[in-house]
Design a protein that fits this description.
- The chain is mainly alpha-helical.
- It has 4 helices and no strands.
- The radius of gyration is 15 Å and the shape is elongated.
- It comes from Algoriphagus oliviformis.
Amino acid sequence: MKEQLKIRFKKFALSVISLCESLPKRNSTFTLSNQIIRSSTSMGANYRSALRGRSAAEFLAKLGIVEEESDETLYWLELISESSLAKPEVVEPLWKECNELLSIVVATINTTRRNQKASK
């Protein structure tokens, strides 16, 4: 499961990069592209870092960053969609995948916290 998620995060980031490459070249898209590339690539980077955490606290802290970056990525996708910079059929699958990844991360955070409380 961990390896599959690492792959999903990487594929997602690559898909976001492709989306950004397809956006019209305007001043507004430069900022949007920069921000969404940063947040989407940070999702996978911090997930990988979480897997190497030396403690449950470190694991949770890194997953918290993944949660924040995922939510930020959803925001940028919404802006791209609502500003009509990309077609809905292009943005929608990315939004769905990002939302699924976010749900998995939140569930993992909640499970880890429950397990920590149960072990005390």
